[in-house]
Amino acid sequence: MSQRYNFLVAHLKKDGLVQLPAVSASLREWFAQLGVAIDRFGNNAGKVVKFSEKNYEKNLQASESEGVTLYSERIWPKDECDERMNCNVSAFFLHDNGLLLSVAGEVMSLDQLIDSFWHLEGFSELFEYLYAYKETQGYGTGFGLGFYTPDELHPLMWEGRNQVGKWAAATRNAVDALYIRDVFDFNAFSEKKMNALPALKQIALESVMNRYGERQLQNGWNVWCVNGDDQRNARKELIARDVLAAFSA
């Protein structure tokens, strides 16, 4: 499963109040926008099950419900692979992780995925930090959710494996406000996220964004797109300033 997928991650505002039915409506709108049918959903028992309106709404309204997960139709027969990976399109929203949108590269480009997120009216207001990247499906999904998933291109002892869980650790330890996760192809920061950084780190990030890649103000967000040598150089500078959680000590 080394096919490339496109991913967008959105982290919630620290003091935001999130209503799952409203999130569900936005994610269902997103599937409709893509012209993709919702085939399955993740229930509160941790299983991926066939979508039905009645069962889905019952699951959503349950007191123990911690999020929303939606999947497009299967690519392979059931039980041939992890059902969470058995799709071209998926959406995860979890209270402790925020949002992860995943789309196969053959379905939608990374730029189109980012645009589809902005088109969800009012949805971006729930979040303070966004980033988007291209990866293999298993590794990219695990990365977005904060855990390491080995695959053909990322073996069990891959040298970069320790970077994956550091953002989740920063979140658990309530120090994620002091960092950004890494430098991605697409990065977006709310003013609140920028201002939450320690002063010297904010200055370092502002400087790097102004010198590498392309920076613009969009929908009230500081949007920074950077790749190639610029991305590598920006990452190197920010590691030296201890701005990136993925490379923190």
Estimate what percentage of residues fall within beta strands: 15-25%
The domain tally reads 2
Main pleated sheet: 10 strands, antiparallel
Strand order of the largest sheet: 3-2-4-5-6-1-7-8-10-9
What gross morphology would you assign?
A: globular
Spans of at least 5 consecutive residues whose pLDDT stays below 50 are: none
Distance from N terminus to C terminus (CA atoms, Å) equals 32 Å
Q: Could you tell me the mean pLDDT?
A: 93
Query: Which structural class is indicated by helix and strand composition?
Result: alpha+beta
Query: How many alpha or pi helices?
Result: 9
The number of strands is: 10
Supply Rg: 18 Å
Order of helices and strands: EHEEHEEEHEHHHEHHEEH
Helix content: 25-40%
Keywords:
globular; 249 residues; 9 helices; alpha+beta; single chain; ten-stranded antiparallel beta sheet; 23% strand
3D structure, described in words:
- Strand 9 and strand 10 form a beta hairpin.
- The chain has two domains: 1-164, no CATH class; 165-249, no CATH class.
- The chain is of the alpha+beta class and 249 residues long.
- It has helices at 20-34, 53-61, 110-118, 137-145, 161-164, 166-172, 191-196, 199-211, 228-240; strands at residues 4-12, 40-42, 48-50, 67-71, 89-94, 98-104, 127-136, 186-189, 214-218, 221-225.
- The longest helix is centred in the N-terminal third of the chain and has 15 residues, at 20-34.
- Helix content is 34%, strand content 23%.
- It has a ten-stranded antiparallel beta sheet.
- It is globular, with a radius of gyration of 18 Å.
- It contains nine helices and ten strands.
